[in-house]
Write a structure and sequence with these properties.
With 498 residues, the protein is an alpha+beta fold. Helix content is 42%, strand content 17%. A hairpin with a 2-residue loop joins strand 5 and strand 6.
């Protein structure tokens, strides 16, 4: 499994009045039992050791992401000895539950960690999911999560199930989504063998807010599935589902990932349902809409929830909006939360945007030409250059690459323009073979290190696919170049450069 920071379906959850008694009982305790996050995150040590029978590789990896604004996983490895034994210890955020992932060979499993855990794992890799067992401190929760994987799938599969329901009409969708949540609550009730009350509250909040989040997404996503294209024209009846979403905010829920998703869309969904500022494709409407969303967040959210909301909203837009607007918004954020944990990442994102802004020199790249010769990006001066970051496991990347080759490149075949594709694949040979099969004959950059490669760092790439347009002098031409799907706009943008 690859961790795809993809611009398709990235981030963007009121139970019905017929939820199970368990959810009613626990929901009233959510704001009391979940720990309060400290202003500055603290860390504590956990230990994980054990034995893997019939190992599928010589190591085991545990990873988690504690960055609320972006995906920058922390990864920890341990080698197996000849008998399959291993031992590792590492830091996790204190006083919260941390959702982690175990990887051994091709096998993946969920693990919930808390400071002070000292887990002893035993598993047979030949039947990985069905044989995971834990002993030691924290094992009650760990074994519960392992049972959940066997019977209901991994936790992130819940979002896939909700996404697959989006084609249903509003009433059917609400009923189906409620059933999915009720199934999770039944599993909790059936398998609640001395689970800590705080963890029960966490688990209930997790699925409750996931449903809220997808209800927020439903109106537009459902309509896009109906018309089979992007649209911000949404029928009024689609917004009926929003009546089931409460304004339910609490800083005590900041450790629950779906609560953060819920925050990101709650005001946007409310304003769209009211018909505010359409169409949003008009820049003035989009700016007015965003200002209204931020005003509601500053007015209605509790302190830490508001801090997160404004930070994530700004972080997501820094690379796309005028830098002057970013400076204004960042100054207001800094005034409100001068010691914010998010400022470092916001400042970094701003600096990246300034470095990659129109008129700035594009970082040089070592390129392999279609005939196999090697050159550098700087050798292409005099040509417009369209750069795309991609990977074989990113299906939209490959699809858009084929569009560029068959539509855009064909129209511009006699013009001074070059297409450069930067691969993040670990296996460049397999990636090159795919390109040969697809008959894509362009310039390529084969990176080493994937997300941690110098090319990704130099271009500040944070999602796939990502594109850049470089003018004939080797400078960035525009801030947000059209994608190959926007073929007409892309052709026009390139044609303006020569």
């Amino acid at each position: 499994m690859h961790h795809v920071r993809c611009r398709y379906w990235q981030r963007r959850n009121r139970p019905s009045y017929h939820i199970m008694n368990l959810s009613r009982t626990v929901a009233c305790c959510l704001f009391v039992l979940l720990p309060v996050l400290c202003l500055q995150p603290a860390f504590a040590v956990v230990k994980v050791s054990g034995r893997i029978l019939h190992p599928a590789s010589d190591s085991i990896r545990i990873s988690y992401n504690d960055n609320k604004l972006a995906y920058y996983p922390k990864e920890f490895y341990a080698r197996l000895d000849k008998k399959g034994n291993f031992s590792m210890q590492f830091d996790v955020p204190a006083d919260v539950y941390t959702q982690a992932e175990i990887k051994h060979g091709i096998h993946l499993a969920d693990l919930m960690l808390q400071d002070g855990d000292s887990l002893v794992l035993s598993v047979d890799a030949a039947s990985f999911d069905s044989t995971i067992q834990y002993a030691g401190r924290g094992s009650i929760i760990a074994n519960f999560v392992a049972r959940h994987t066997i019977t209901s799938g991994r936790m992130n599969q819940y979002s896939v199930r909700l996404k697959n329901l989006l084609e249903k009409n509003p009433a059917e969708y609400m009923q189906a989504a409620e059933k999915e949540k009720a199934d999770e609550f039944r599993f909790l009730e059936k398998n609640n063998n001395k689970l800590p009350v705080a963890f029960v509250a966490y688990w209930t909040a997790y699925y409750t807010y996931y449903n809220y989040f997808f209800l927020q997404q439903y109106p537009q996503m459902h309509q896009m599935m109906v018309v089979r294209r992007y649209t911000d024209t949404v029928p009024e009846e689609n917004y009926a589902v929003l009546q089931a979403i409460p304004d339910s905010f609490s800083d005590r829920l900041m450790q629950v990932p779906p609560y953060l998703l819920y925050l990101t869309g709650v005001f946007e969904a409310r304003l769209k349902a009211a018909g505010f500022a359409y169409p949003l494709s008009v820049p003035a409407n989009a700016a007015r809409f965003l200002d209204s969303v931020n005003t509601l967040a500053y007015q209605q959210l509790p302190d830490k929830s508001g801090e997160y909301f404004v930070a994530q909203s700004l972080y997501a837009r820094i690379r796309r909006q005028p830098i002057e607007r970013t400076h204004t918004e960042l100054a207001a954020f800094r005034k409100k939360w001068p010691a914010s944990e998010y400022l470092k990442l916001l400042d970094k994102q701003t600096a990246i945007t300034e470095r990659l802004s129109p008129g700035q020199l594009a970082p040089d790249l070592r390129i392999t030409a279609p005939d196999g010769t090697h050159l550098r990006l700087s050798d292409l001066r005099g040509k417009a250059v369209y750069i795309g970051f991609w990977a074989t496991w990113c299906k939209p990347c490959v699809g858009e690459m084929r569009l560029a080759e068959r539509k855009v490149k064909e129209v511009l075949k006699n013009k001074p323009v070059a297409f450069v594709y930067v691969s993040l694949d670990d296996d460049s040979t397999a990636a090159a073979a795919l390109m040969k099969t697809l008959k894509i004959e362009s310039h390529f950059v084969w990176t080493t290190g994937g997300w941690y490669s110098p090319e990704v760092s130099a271009y500040g790439v944070q999602g796939l696919p990502t594109y850049f347009l470089v003018d004939t002098n080797g400078n960035f031409a525009v801030q947000n170049p059209p994608t190959p799907q926007q073929s007409t706009e892309l052709i026009v943008a390139i044609s303006k450069l020569y």
